Structure formats: C-alpha cells, structure tokens
Amino acid sequence: MLRPERMSKVSVTGSKGVMPAVIETIHGLNLVHLSDYDGSWEGFDNGNPIEGADDASEKLVTVRALESTLKLSADEAEPGALEENWESRIEEIRTRVNELDDQRSETREELRQVEEKIGRVAPFAELGIDLDLLSGYDTVDVVVGEGPRAQVEDAVAASDEIRAYETFTGGDVVAIVAAPTADAGSSPIDDALVGVEFTRHPVPETDQTPSAYVDELSERKRELEYEIEDIDAELEQIKANEAGFLLAVEEELTVEVQQADAPLQFATTGRAFIAEGWIPSDEYDDLVASLNDAVGESVEIEELERASYDRHGKTHTEDIQQGTQAAKDDEDAAAEEDGQQQKAMTDGGSAVTMSDEPPTIQKNPSAAKPFETLVQAVNRPKYNELDPTIFLFLTFPLFFGFMISDVGYGLLYVLTGFYMYQSFDSPGITSLGGVAMWCGAFTIVFGILFGEFFGLHELGYMIFGDGGAPMGDKGLSPATAEFVNAWLIVAVALGVLHLNIGWILDFVENIQHGHGLWGAITHSGSWLLMLNGLWVWVFTEQAAHVKPDFIYTAFDGEPFAFGFSGFPMMDLFAIGGVEITLPLLAVILGVVLLAVGDPVELAEFAMPFAHVVSYARMTAVLLAKGGMAFVVNLLTFGAVQTPEGARPFMAPWTGYGPEDGQVMFDGLFYIGDGAVAIAAFALGVLVLVLGHILVLLLGITSAGLQGIRLEYVEFFGKFYEGGGKNYEPFGHDRNHSED
C-alpha cells in the first residue's frame, strides 16, 4: 500500500429510542471506526452504557476466568448456538471448576509442605541415628549439617569453648556432639564454625526413626500427586465437554459488552445522540442501506468529509453530496426540545465534526504483509503519508542476503522462518517468520552467486564449473583482498540508490500534496542534487590524487573487468583555476536551493556523504560473517598446499587431504593417531556444529540489526514520520457463536 485507502467521516444522528438498534446494526457491519466524543460541544455529554452493561461485564469476567483456569484457547472448539439456560449452565460450571481449583491449590500447598519436610529430614536418614538422640541435652551441644568434614573437625578442635567432641557422618551429612567448657557461650559449635561453609539442618520433631519418617512422607507425597492428577483429569474432562459452550458464551458476552458501552463514545442530550466515525468510502452506501433497513428514516446519516492524501497537512474535506435523510417527527421534536444541541451545529446545518484524524488501513501484497510489523515497530503510518512497507520488502531482504550470502545459512533461515510462520498464533511471531523466509531466500541467492555453503567455496565450482562463482570471492585472503574494494563500492552504490528512492518519494509527495513544485525543489530536490552530484564527482578523475585508486580499478580489471574506470570529468567552466564540473555544479546548486528553502537544514549539509558511507557497514558484516565461517572451517578441516595452489579447506568432499600436498594448517579432523585422533575428531565435530550455530545467530543480530538500522535511520528519515492510528472498526468477527 503506497497510499491509504480512501476514508470518509460519517455522522449518525437520531433519538435515543433508536440508539440500541443503530448500535446493533453498526456493530454487525464491523466497518465503522468510532470517534471518541471529547465533551467539547456545549449541551452535549458523553452517553451512558446501555442498561445491563455491568451485568454482562461481570459474566464476561467470570467466563474468561473459567477459560484461564481450564487453560482454554480459542482454537479448541467449533462454533455453535447457545441454549436458553446458558446462564444456569455457566453457574454450574463455575461452581464445579472453582471447587476443583481450590482443592487443587490446597493439595499443592500440602504437597509443598511435605516436600519441605522430606528435604529437612532426608539428611538425618543418611546419618542413621534416631532423631531423639540428636536433641534434648543440657550438658552437650549437638549440631547437624552439611559441609567439608575435615574443615569442620579442624574448626571444632581449635575452639577454646569446646573441651571434647565427636562427629558422625552419613553421606554428606555431619553430626557434631560437643562438650562445652564451663565459660562457653550458648552455641559453642556455631561459634566454632564461623568461616566454614556449613549448612545447618534443624532436627525434625518426630518420634519415628528418620528413615521411617521419610518413608511415611514419601507415601503421602505420592498420594497427593495422585490427587492432583485426578483433579487435573477432571478439569480436562470439563474442558473437553464445555470448550465450545464457554467460547460461544464469551463471544456473545463480548458483543453484548461492546454494544452496551458504545454510547460512551457518543455525544448525547436528554433525547438525542450523535455518533461519528471513519469508514472506507466505498462502504458508505452499505452503511446507509443497512441503517435504512434497521430503523428506516429514524436517523439522519451524513458523510461529513472524505479524507484525501496530504503529505504535509491535515486531511482535506471535499465537497460531498450529503447522504441525509429526513428524520421522523419525534426526532425533530426531540431536537427542538434540546435547543442547546443546535450550538453544536454550524450555520450550514452540519454537525461540528469530532476532531480526530482518519485511521490507517495498511493493505499490502501478501508477500510484503509480514514487513508491516517492522514498519509498526517504528510507528504505524499516518493516514496522510506513504506506507513504506513495500520498499522495506524490496530492500531489507536484499541487504540481509548480501551481508550473509551463504546457501547453508540461508536454508536454515528459511526453515526457521517457516517454523515460526506455521507454528505460532501470535501475529508478531508469524510476521517475523515471513520476514525470515524472505531474508533466507535472498541469502541463498547471494550464496549461490558467491558459491558458498557454510563458508565452503566448493559450491561455486560445482555449479559454475572451473571458473567458480560469478561474484568471485568475499576477499578474506591476501590473494583476493581486491574483492573487498569492489564490495565496498557496491555497498556505497546501494546506499546512493536507496537514498535516492527516499528523497524522490519525498519530492513526489511535496509536489503533489505539500509545498508545490518550488517547495519540492527546495525541500527535496536540493538533497537529490547534493547526493548525486557529490557521489558522481567522487568517481570522476578530478582530484584523483587524493582519492583511493581502487575506485577506478575495482571494476576495470581488479578484480572485475567491466570497463568502468570512473565517470568523465564533465567540465563546464573554471573559476580561479578550479574546474567547475557538472557534478560540482549540482552540489553547489543543491546547497543554494537548500539555503533558500530551509536555511536551518544547512547544518546537515554533510548528510548525503555521511549517510551513504554508513552503508559501508554492509561490507563490514559481509567480511565479518564470512571470516567467522572461514575460521570455523579452518579449525575443523585445516588447509593444504597442492601443486594447483593453496586449498583453504581439506573437507572430505573436496577430494583433498594431507596426502595431496604440504599441510599448511592441521585441522582437528587430521590431528594425531589412535585415541588422540578420535578425541580430536569429536572436538572437531563440536567446533564445526557450535561454530556455525554461533555464526548463524550472530548473522541475525548483526546483519538484521545493521540492515534495519539503514532502513529506519538513513531511509525512513527522508520521507517517513509515522504516528497513525490503526483502523479498528466497531464490531466483532464471530468464530464460536452463531449470529
């Protein structure tokens, strides 16, 4: 969607007697985005909920609480009709579910207490000493706990407050019996163990032996667990039997509450009401026809304004043939009786419209639909501006794919995205799944062009023959370093193209709906002149001695022989010995136009250079991710020097191994013999798998974040503001109940 769907502001006026029928009709259409009355009209107040709203809300809360207790989701039942006695049925379900839920809570609490008791007495069972022997002494101090026995004994032996002691152990548990000196404190053992990592266990109060007590508690624990299983099973049975009914009731009550609360958004007097809202213009006739069928001529319907696209201002109100109808005599009398109502009318007789902007309906092709989530992460488009979703769809996967460019990683991104798209109900997650699939697809395309599969380059030779992949190499080795310069130029070229699109969109919007032709030239055309003039000049031979040589050679033989060695000078004239070329003139003219149109923006005159250079981050990520995959493979497979040249990897499927030449670097797959080789091979598998998983995840964070930053900061900033309202029509789609 480049432009928003055309929206109309409509008004419905009538007496309060027909208001429930009007609300029900509008709700059933599910088309009108209601405007909120702000109380600003003299003589009008916000309406009150329809009678029964509180009761319906309470019932709705009850039903949703039952669904929460039963863990009932919306996809677990088929639609159906409600019975006449549904209220009593709800009460029966509520009573039984609450009883079971309370019983389950009590049982879980008792189970928790039993488990705590087992945890407290289990250490004493390891000691094998009766519990009555570990407490009740006046002349000795007894402590039981867990800690390093040697340190415990050393600490107790060194204490001046203990004249004799004995320790008993069982597993990790230590029992200390100590005879204190005459001048000892109340807890001589605790004082002695200060500084020792010792966990003290209080002695349980029971006449049983520790093992018998543990056995008794364990038996009670099993009984409680069985009770919880029985309760859960009964709740599951209730859920299976009542799922469709509960969901149907919830839907019916939701509709009832929505309709009952609708007057809160209306402007009302003692006898009349005015409701306003936005509707797609093409649906206006359906609204009029439906209200006519429902209440005849008892309401007056007007199309107050029809919003048109305006980039830099509020929506325009067009001259519209009013779709008014004559109200019945009783409404006329009601309006006459409430004379203050007329203060809310203009001299021409139309209502003063509630001040709100039209909502936005985002309608993009199904392929681009997932990218709406990324746009909304910044802000939803305003009605009066372009929706950039389609441009995000066309460029973000391209940037991401270029930065990763590996068939193996691309396949995993596609599979992960497909899983997210198919397995989750959350619109946000499914949208991200769609984005991941598109990014993975472009990653595969660039991976084929680079001939890479999880960092291995054999794919290029397998597909394209001895010449290798069309895009050559990423430039990770000294022998191919010149490719880095080429990819740097490609990133800059993509940046220039991307920013051109942004400012062209701004230019078109200005010329059509904003500042007119001159305003478009000074506001957007100035930046276009500066951007293109500057970067065309960069690739001319003027001042070549201060420019890097690779901008003239990267596509003229090193590494690509495309015959491009820069743009011609395009000399025009000289001033003071300085040749003024066409690109320089474009830059100068752009600065002048910017100063004329908005001098404040001159402070950002370096933006055409700085923002384009920012796209060089794509080359940095390309090299970083390729380098990480290279290192993982190098650690695993090693490298060998063959008569044909250095082979960076000795992967088994390449046909190269240590026997084919001088080993340059031993990979983990080729280290040692016997047990050492097996251990090294196992480590190599671990490094290979975990290493590539790490690269895969970092690819999401680095390529994803850097790509989206280029979209949000460099691109959106040229033409996009956001801040719109979502189109939320008053109504409800029935999925579990019959209308």
Notes on the protein architecture:
- Helices cover 51% and strands 11% of the residues.
- It has helices at 19-29, 53-70, 86-127, 149-157, 188-192, 210-261, 284-295, 329-337, 372-378, 389-404, 407-423, 427-450, 458-464, 482-513, 516-538, 550-553, 582-597, 607-614, 617-637, 674-715, and strands at 7-15, 33-34, 45-46, 141-146, 162-170, 173-180, 199-200, 267-268, 272-280, 299-306, 571-575, 578-581, 638-642, 645-647, 662-666.
- Strand 5 and strand 6 (173-180) form a beta hairpin.
- The chain has 739 residues and is of the alpha+beta class.
- Helix 3 packs antiparallel against helix 6.
List the helices and strands and how they pair.
Elements: E1 7-15, H1 19-29, E2 33-34, E3 45-46, H2 53-70, H3 86-127, E4 141-146, H4 149-157, E5 162-170, E6 173-180, H5 188-192, E7 199-200, H6 210-261, E8 267-268, E9 272-280, H7 284-295, E10 299-306, H8 329-337, H9 372-378, H10 389-404, H11 407-423, H12 427-450, H13 458-464, H14 482-513, H15 516-538, H16 550-553, E11 571-575, E12 578-581, H17 582-597, H18 607-614, H19 617-637, E13 638-642, E14 645-647, E15 662-666, H20 674-715
Helix pairs in contact: 1-6, 1-7, 2-3, 2-6, 3-6, 10-12, 10-19, 10-20, 11-12, 14-15, 14-18, 14-19, 15-17, 19-20
Residues in helix, %: 40-55%
Radius of gyration over C-alpha positions, nearest whole angstrom: 39 Å
Q: What is the chains' assembly state?
A: single chain
Strands, total number: 15
Q: On the 0-100 scale, what is the average pLDDT?
A: 84
Give unreliable regions as ranges: 311-315, 321-351
Q: Tell me the number of helical segments per DSSP (H or I, 4 or more residues long).
A: 20
Strand count, sense and barrel status of the largest sheet are: 6 strands, antiparallel
- State the secondary-structure class: alpha+beta
Any idea what the shape is?
flat
